[in-house]
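BUG-493 | component: ligand-complex export | severity: low

The export step for alpha-D-glucopyranose jobs runs without errors, but we want the raw record kept on the ticket for reference. Input record follows.
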Amino acid sequence: MAERAPKVLFVGTELSPFSKVGGLGDVMGSLPKALLQCGVDVRVVTPAWPGVLQKVRDAGYKIVTGLQHVTVACAWRTVEAIVHRVDDADGVPIYLLESEYYNGAMYPWEINAATVHPFMIFCLQALELSRVTEWEPDVFHCHDWPTAFLPCALAWHHHYHHFVKQDGTRPASVLTLHNVAHQGIFPPGPFFEESGLDRSCFNMGGIEFYGMINLLKGGILSATAITTVSPRYAWEIQTWESTEALSGVLYNRRDRLNGILNGLDVDYWNPATDPLLPECYSADSLDGKTACRRELLKNTGFDPEWKGPLVVSVSRLVEQKGFDIVLPALKQIETLGAKFIFLGSGHRWIEDALRDAAVLHRDSLCFFPGYNEPLAHLLYAGGDIYLMPSLFEPCGLSQMIAMRYGAVPVVREVGGLIDTVVDVDAEGGGNGFTFLTYDTQGMFWSLRRAIERFSNIRAWDKIRAKGMREDFSWEKSALLYRDLYRRILKEGG
Ligand code: ADP
Ligand code: GLC
């Protein structure tokens, strides 16, 4: 008898292309489509942050509202959200929850019992959603600390601890760790009164963390299964004596932890069809890439006919991405004989330092502050070398996008960067340039190797073509997720 398709609800706070801060948005927007194609009955729920409903309409999707509400009880109040359903052309139903709680910025700068409130409410709403959809998930698939409260609620909430499906069985939960550096840690304060969790989970084997609440830790300990976004990062987070300090907890849960490499939406990130590029191209016909390069150079004020190497970066401006080794290197930027173009937003101090450096080295460096999707596409397409010297990197999608667009990555040997980039000087050749030691010299060494190799046209074409032909689709990884759902459902959630 054919196995019943697992019913999986993706519960996440970002969804590309409507609400995206980084790679989490990309994964939420692409993995469900790949799962649907391999026989998973999948749906997505996400908050309707400001502007999201309009973006969905602008993208040409139909929104069905039908006066449906989902109601949850929280700290003696009832909180309502309007449920909007998006009819997605790819067939994955998406639910957008509209509520006064999702009227502000997506993520708070300061984490405390008040600022995590919208995220707890969102998780409870996801649990209640089946009342209006008449579609009951077997698995709630949550992502990072903002939705780690959901498995905690299934385990320790006064009410949801008893949550069962209509057939009397309990739903399972999967928590994907996209970034263990963010855990949702704050002093308990009124947390237990407000969240509905039983105070008995405030201990080492529960949500307590050095006297504080740690939502991610609670999620790791209560989820049926945990995944993270590359096999290498799965190993690192169990072994590192890192500031993240959850390595012991993760090591103890290693039988439940799976490292599954992220893929890309290869239809969206495709230089052969990308509508955001001035000209399209492929590995077999690169003329369009030259046109993109010229367009990019025009936007920067550099000479559009510059023929030397163009180093690009599209990044959140945060410590994780290696800016403390990049910034000192900029002092010697003129010695490299390359031009640099950075696009990014994030910490003010990094933004200011890049702005200052761009003024000081105006012939070699251009910085675009902010988040800009079309410009990001042009940087990937126009660039020759993609710089990503991360301190840590759970997976990284940018290096994969860069390779697909023919920009050869220079990366640090860490996390998912190791799982996707092989040094060109390794036995058998590779698709990029890597270095291990986290310092400016290490990065410079690899960057110089890349710049020198660029002048050897034949060698460069080979490296670039290898990257452009890699399979970065979700195909293999979606099957691994499907098998994981099937396994945990067989085990009984
Ligand atoms: P992270 O999720 O840690 O930021 P990833 O490499 O997994 O890193 O994903 C980053 C995603 O966000 C990529 O799709 C990248 O193109 C996009 N991105 C990052 N910063 C910007 C920006 N300033 N403008 C446009 N896109 C950006
Ligand atoms: C996080 C990580 C990044 C990963 C992305 C998607 O933002 O920093 O490495 O690619 O999530 O999983």
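Assignee comment: Attached the raw record above. The longest strand covers residues 77-87.
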